[in-house]
Amino acid sequence: MAKQLTGDQPQGGDRLTSARIIAVQDDLVQIEVMATGRDGGHAQLVKNEVIYICPSEPNERGEQERLKAEVLRVRGMIADAQVFESTQGVAVGDAVEQSAEMLSVELGPGLLTQVYDGLQAPLPKIAAEYGIFLPRGVSVAPLDAAKKWSFVPTVKSGTKVGAGDTLGTVMEGRFTHKIMVPFGLSGEYAVSWIQEGNFTVHEVVARIADEAGNEREIQLAQKWPVRQALSGRILKGNRSRRLYPDEPIVTTQRLIDTFFPIARGGTACIPGPFGAGKTVLQNLIARHSSVDIVIVVACGERAGEVVETINEFPKLNDPKTGGTLMDRTIIICNTSSMPVAAREASIYTGITLGEYYRQMGYDVLLIADSTSRWAQAMRETSGRLEEIPGEEGFPAYLDSSIKSVYERAGVIETNDGDIGSLTMIGTVSPAGGNFDEPVTQSTLSTVKCFLGLSADRAYKRFYPAVDPQISWSRYLTQLEPWYEEHLEAGWTSRVAELTELLQRGVAVLQMMQVTGEEGVTLEDFVDYQRALFVDMVYLQQDAFDEVDATVPLERQKLTFRRVYELVTRKYDFADKNVARDYFTRLTGLFKNYNYVATTSPDHDRLLKEIDDLAAGVVSVGAGDAESTADQS
Predict the structure, then answer these.
(1) 63, 180, 406, 606 — which has fewest CB within 10 A?
(2) Alpha carbons within 13 A on the beta-carbon side of 497
(3) Beta bridge partners of 53
(4) Do residues 379 and 325 lie in contact, with contact meaning Cβ atoms separated by under 8 Å?
């Protein structure tokens, strides 16, 4: 009979060899209970329990291997389990050990700057000990067990505490890392003993006792099952509370922050075909967004892209701190060449680490690249389990699985009153850029911001290649009060005006592709030129220019105001050639303006040239037609 393990059950019991392999299919094995359990009866098979497969033959080093696996389905005395490593050499009859643990990660100081695989194995440590070709069955602690941390208590003996309450802090780089009461505990406890000093993550720093006097030791590190929301029990117990996202994260990308904003604690997806610039865009967002901590989950992408990320992040300067970007980053790395089962688990590992830092009151950004590969891993596992397939062979529960991932994002008011957030951005890689495939459609029905990348815009070198015709954000109206207060009144209505202008421009372009310029009126042609101007000078951004790569919100506001004034004027051009020449020159000046820093002497010069050019054209301003005509 299947039973769900919960977070407050003991993590890590004695090894129990209680089952054996009865079938092997790729990374899926079938096990059968064969031995007596601790209570004298048959051992219980539990869904999502971690088990270890012990091949009868030792490896080339003469060591007994223990291959980590997770129980997926229980049917009486038989269970199906996915193995997180190669099953080569695993044979029918091999012993199986039960752990009485769910698939869990270790939470504590030392997570930042780490590069883990999907099961939280530290890849640099494994590579240093075993070489770049990682052997299977190797177990390395995710946190440095020898490093000491300076623990400073924030409570005294006798203080009443509960799950998620802060007992003390250690400094993890520039971050104050809170040591909290284990999240799976229920009820109220009293601190019976606590000490200050330097300790490793597994040394006891405090003891807490329940109402019956039963004591529990507290270490700097604790475990949590990745498939359960870390804040779930704390929220149900009203120790923390979920808040409504009411402000955006500032990515410093004009197109996103102005037209398609992402709320702090919100969800977004970036689907696009190969070569459309997903990796560059997500790196820009990770580097420049107004968040404290970044978690990059590479679940199934090509190894070359992941290696590039791992090599670049330690070298990139962090504009927030002046250090390196890696100082506030965790990378979860499971490429397409790694086992399918570990790829499926990697996204849950990243989310759990993000929830942990959110519970400390930090703003966390999680970028999953790509959820398509994660869904394909689920499809492979589902197929091997012979489950009834859904559309394109994906499991029937694909939609609910995607929703269960994104719903773990959000804004939390923690136990001690701090506000933390977890913002999730998932990139999707639909085959051939087909946005109608199941993963993209399920994601679109879940997230509230859709940044659709276009192969056509990428081919034209319009970067970021986010297509404004298909992209949308429900946060624009949700965050309207914030924009009205922090930017200017009428911000969202003006953004809506320019969005409509961009749509009219595309409609006119499509008409001209059929009839030529002669087939459209001068008014329509001017609308097309206005829309093209907005696209060229505001939507596009140069990722390799020091100034244009990242634009603060204040400069975005000033730039948008000037662009809006220029495109909403009522121009009176003599013909289409005059209109084209004017907007071409205006675009050149404005693109040069985007490349100069605010402190540069060229900044004011270029603005004056833009104003002079605009003043030299006969136009009708809003309510000031005569004076504008007199100026010209």
Answers:
(1) 63
(2) 14
(3) 67, 96
(4) no
